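For reproducibility, we list the full input for the zinc ion complex.
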Amino acid sequence: MYGYYGYPMYGYDWTYILVLIGAVISMLASYNVKATFEKFAKVQSFSGLTGAQAAQMILERNGINNVRIQGIAGSLTDNYVPSKKILNLSQSTINSTSIAAIGVAAHECGHAIQDAKGYQPLVLTRTISPMCAIASKISIPLIFFGLIVSMTPLIKIGIIAFAVAISVQLLTLPVEFDASKRAVQTLAEYGMVTDQELSGIKSVLSAAALTYVAAAASSILQLLRLLMIVRGRENRRR
Ligand SMILES: [Zn+2]
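The corresponding predicted structure, in tokenized form, follows.
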């Protein structure tokens, strides 16, 4: 019998509940960020600045003039690409004058500021990302193959690869929280938004940060499950 990810299972595999918990946490976080964004997307900013204008102002005020702002398809797909110095703002952000749009644009500027200042966790994330991507590709096939041919060392290597793959998710957490902190600081410092608007922006950015926390938590739960499967196999052999 083969279960989730094709792991052979013997009888009822209760560790599967860890995967379900992770999925529920991620779903709730994703629902929460969409609902919070939609709520504040209806609140127009007092300044009338669009997401793109706010981003331009924040970059200028931080002495950054080598970053290009451009549009990207989709909603909540906003991102900053350090290697190309491009700040991608989504359709729901770039031309919107809502405080949700200003908040998201400011957050992405936070990443551009991190890049300009050589913020170490961001540099480290970029350095380990290619290795984590490879680890992510080989981990599940290794574990699966190890289970089929019943080679515990192979399964263990697969689990180590899985741990390496998810390390980037953990490192992303300080990077995301710091980007939001820088965004809020700049908006407040230059009086770009009112105090009331700032509290709405903080709600949007906190909801967004929670999705990263949920993703990391569900990956850790999966890792825990893999470790339990291996321990279960070793115990059965004794
Ligand atoms: Zn971010």
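The first helix runs from residue 16 to 41. The chain is about 70% helix and 5% strand. Both points were considered when choosing residues for closer inspection.
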